[in-house]
Each structure stands twice: as structure tokens, then as C-alpha cells.
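Comment thread on ticket #2218

A.B. wrote:
> Attaching the input chain for the structure job we discussed in standup.
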Amino acid sequence: MCGRFSQHYTWQQIHNFSNPLTLAAGRGNLQQRYNIAPTTNVDIIVPSEAGRELISARWWLVPAWWKKSLKEVPSTFNARVETVDTSPMFRDAFRRKRCIVPASGFFEWTGPKTDRIPHYFSAADDGLLGIAGLWERWQSPEGEDVTSCTMVVRDADEWTARYHDRMLSFLQPEDFDAWLSGSAGKDLLRKTPPKLQEWVVDKRVNKTGQGDDEPATIERDS
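C.D. wrote:
> Ran it. Output below, let me know if you need it in another format.
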């Protein structure tokens, strides 16, 4: 499962990654983030009249029908591909509200619980990664509007299994339209992932939010 990732790209990089792409009205400048944890607002790409739009969403999906408080939502920052189309928490979004989560990289951990070793993963060509996601709009009992999202995860391939038994469901740019339109089924989520590279980083990322605005956070640990 993926519980930490990074988004640190320029306007040129995100436009090259997803073209066409427009910016949601009222959306602020890009923020460089190196240690993003669940419940943080992140960038996601959603379909729009102009083609695709970059909006902000809380990374912890809240289904539109949820009647309790935000704090009572169970763990929904990842959605398993095996049940993403049948789980009550995700099935409506799978049918109608798909998104792409652009990522510069992500983290996984190895080692015992008392001495966890953080590993950073990114595309082998240093490009952006497109993660299959779902999004929703929800209104709290108090009237607050919340846009939220989740990332889809699948069984790990042989390379990734050395670090974790699950991995993110990645999309290639040629599959973006099929995913966002809803015309593609779950088979798309099990395609061969992009080639990745990995290195060990400083253990400070083990703490949520630590080094989130510092590029050194993802440097190789000496």
C-alpha cells in the first residue's frame, strides 16, 4: 500500500505530462512537496470540458453518500484493485469519477518495525508517474464541501515485491483518456508498470510531514 509520496514538478513538466491541461479556477501556485501523507491536499487530474483539469483534493476519499463526520471515515487513501468496483466506499467513484494522481515519486519501507528503512522510488527516466485514482465531492453535516481522492493499488510485480507485496496501479499517457472516460475496465490497472529506480533516504521521512518542503528529503542517504 502507498502511504507517502511526492509532487515536485514545474508547470512545464506537468503540462508535458498531461496535454491538454487547464488549471482549476481559484487554484493557487504549484507547491513542491517531498513527503506527502494521507489527509493532505494533493494535485489530481480530472476530466473537464476543456479536456483535463488540475485540481486539489484531500488524499483520503470520502464517498458522496457518507453521513458521519470526516474523522469517522475509515482508511480510504488506497483502494484495492480487486474490490475497487464493488466496495461501497469506491464503486460509485469507479463508475463516474476517475482521476490521475501525478507523482514525482513515492516511498516504501523495509526492515523491522523498530528500525524501518525508507526507500524512495521514481521513474527510471526521471519523468512523472501517473497513478490511477478516484475522486469524490462530499458535503459534511455542517455544510463544508470537501473534494477528496484515493490511489488504486494492486499486487506487486517481481521487482517491487522485494520491498512490498502491493504496488500502485500506474497508467501510461496513452491510457489516460480511456481511464478518465470510464471506458476502460480493471484490466488497465494491471498492465506492466513503468520502469522504476529506488534508493534509501534519510529516516526523517518516517515521521509524517518531516522535510515535506525540502528537496534533500529524497536525496540518497549517505
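A.B. wrote:
> Thanks. Noting for the ticket: The chain has three helices and 14 strands.
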